[in-house]
Amino acid sequence: MNNVKVAAICIGTAGADYDTKMAMAIEYLHISGKHKVDVACLPEAFASTEPETIPGKTTEAISKLAKQYNMYIVCPLIEKMGEKVYNTAVLIDRKGDIAGYYRKVFVFWGENVNLGEEGVKTFDADFGRIAILTCFDLNFAELWHDADLMDADIVFWPSAYGGGMPLNAYAMIYHYYIVPVGWGNIIDITGENMKDVISPKEKIFIADLDLDRTFIHDNFTGDKVTKLLSDYKGEVMVEHRYDMEAWNLLKSVKKDVHVRKLCKEYEIETLREYQHRSRHQINEIRKIGGKV
Fold it and tell me: For tag attachment on the chain, is the N or C end more exposed, with fewer CB atoms within 10 Å?
């Protein structure tokens, strides 16, 4: 899949009684499903701050909607695990099964929950790879860097607030989409807030993300990119040229043509691959005191 439809359901953290918030969440998930969303994300601890098990009453209710509409759902809650309590985001898959979870690493002061010990995780969906970070995690760049190292295509960020400029910066630096679920500003891989976002009802924001769009650095790729563009004239285009950065953003304009696949075929490193390889190789040379 090139295009993935996401929904940010910005109904806020807890606040009302559990039944009221669950009814609200279910209403918005029905809206998401009717718009054929692939991944819907609810806010941090959206229904209650009372700890519960996984699986439990919240995940069981939300799983029914995931299965009904064949969509992934990010379901944040306060998790009770033995003697510990975590601020956890559960990923439910299209079949309604629990595909994984992320426990908030940097807990905000006064939450009275345990700190996540497992770090950043990524999850392989049928369209690509996603990560989840939560609210106060915004302030700690190493988490966002880890999501990049794990090749996340999209980072979902359920939150009690909007986040603002740091999210745009992370998206631009790491070239992944960010779906904030605080105020609903869905962020492109360019770091800009996406303009083609629909809001069928207040507090829900839906956008199509093209996961095939790919940044390429000029270094070591120039002739290969020129040949690709020549061979696929009218099918692959340079969406934008970034002169200062020496980047091209490539985009397919034909449904059955995939830029990422062509990059492998033409042995073109993506910008992310180039950065990751350079980091690894230079650090290995550093260990032996060599020169680059």
Answer: C
